[in-house]
Design brief:
By secondary structure, the protein is an alpha+beta fold. It contains twelve helices and nine strands.
């Protein structure tokens, strides 16, 4: 169900967003082109090989594991329809000659960030051949070896600080430098919550509450947009970090990277919708980040407050996004995360009650979404 009655302003905002409503025919993988690409790079694939679909997320990309007989050679084939377009909610940018995934991968690799190796690419047909990292996402390791949780999250928090330092200066022509969490984008993301997590689920909102929500969304977006900007992965969470046998974390799903608040990736990591951490664990990891970033006591305190403020914005967007996946992309798998995600918003709002806007938003959510 697509909510009706969008205002002119909402329609104008939507025009800024690269978000197709239905997949075109170009979203169908061309496996003849994949076979040709694989055979051109790996002679062992000239004989028969298996091509097995792999689990994916909420985006349009598809993954396949290619295996030779006896699995002597394995690679991952990533199919990216319309590869130059962002998958997340984002302002349209000028056409780029190279896929953002490939450009950003090269940038990260050059700066010493652990990312998958690229073996070959056939972007006209939508294919890239990547290093096979296995199935050991951070999320999977937490299920299989929960005793490693603290060790891995200490590493992840420190990796955020390290990456921000290594990427403090970007090439002038970098796609990352050309896009940012500005006021328009942040405001759109907050409104994504109203459009889908409220209206999209048929939850009524009074005219007064609607007016209040719109005003709060504008002010919160403006405030977060004013924070200093650093490199942001954008979805730095347990399903987008691969754990290597050495224990190091390999980044994936970084194609939507942009400039934004220093705490943004920490919010994605520590308020991950797919995980649950107590406040003590989160605070300890924020302290690990502060130490790795050489922050003094006052900056550490600022990080704690920024973390809660950005949590409100990010998790509202996530809750709306999960409903969007169901209503528009016919993928209900994320619906079970809607209420836990809103609970994370409520927890941050409770710590920000000395702020008039956050207190007003907390009260509004209590009225519209009681319990």
């Amino acid at each position: 169900m697509v909510p009706l009655g969008r205002s002119r302003r909402e329609r104008a905002h939507r025009q800024l967003i690269a978000m197709p409503d239905a997949p075109p025919a170009s979203y169908l993988p061309d496996f003849v082109a994949l076979r040709s690409l694989a055979e051109s790079v790996f002679p062992s694939f000239r004989d028969a090989f298996d091509c097995t679909p792999m689990a994916g997320g909420g985006g349009t990309r598809k993954y396949f594991r290619l295996r030779t007989a006896g699995a002597a050679q394995t690679v991952v084939a990533m199919f990216v329809p319309e590869g130059a377009k962002p998958e997340e909610i984002a302002k349209d940018t000028a056409d780029t000659a190279r896929w953002p995934f490939l450009e950003i991968r090269d940038l990260l690799a050059a700066r010493g960030i652990d990312v998958p190796q690229v073996y070959a690419e056939d972007t006209p047909h939508g294919w890239v051949l990547l290093e096979d990292l296995g199935d050991t996402t951070l999320a999977e390791v937490l299920l299989q070896k929960p005793e490693t949780r603290e060790q891995l999250y200490v590493r992840a928090a420190r990796d955020v600080a390290r990456a921000q330092s290594l990427l403090a200066k970007l090439p002038a022509d970098s796609i990352v430098a050309s896009r940012a969490f500005d006021e328009d984008l942040l405001h759109w993301e907050i409104q994504h919550f109203r459009e889908w997590a409220i209206a999209g689920r048929g939850i009524p909102m009074t005219a007064d509450d609607g007016t209040t929500f719109d005003a709060l969304a504008s002010r919160i977006a403006k405030r977060i947009a004013a924070l200093p900007r650093v490199f942001v992965h954008r979805d730095f969470q347990s399903r987008n970090l691969m754990v290597r046998p050495s224990g190091s974390l390999c980044w994936i799903d970084f194609q939507d990277a942009l400039l934004g608040p220093r705490v943004y990736d920490l919010v994605a990591l520590l308020n991950d919708s797919y995980q649950s951490f107590d406040r003590a664990f989160v605070a300890a990891r924020l302290a690990d980040y502060a130490t790795a970033a050489s922050l003094d006591a006052s900056e550490h305190a600022a990080v704690l407050r920024e973390f809660d403020s950005v949590t409100v914005q990010r998790k509202l967007k996530d809750a709306g996004r999960f409903v969007f996946f169901d209503r528009v992309k016919s993928n209900p798998a994320f619906l079970k995360f809607v209420e836990p995600t809103i609970a994370k918003v409520r927890a941050s709002l409770a710590r920000l009650r000395d702020d008039d806007d956050m207190r007003a938003l907390e009260a509004l959510l209590a009225r519209v979404l009681p319990g």
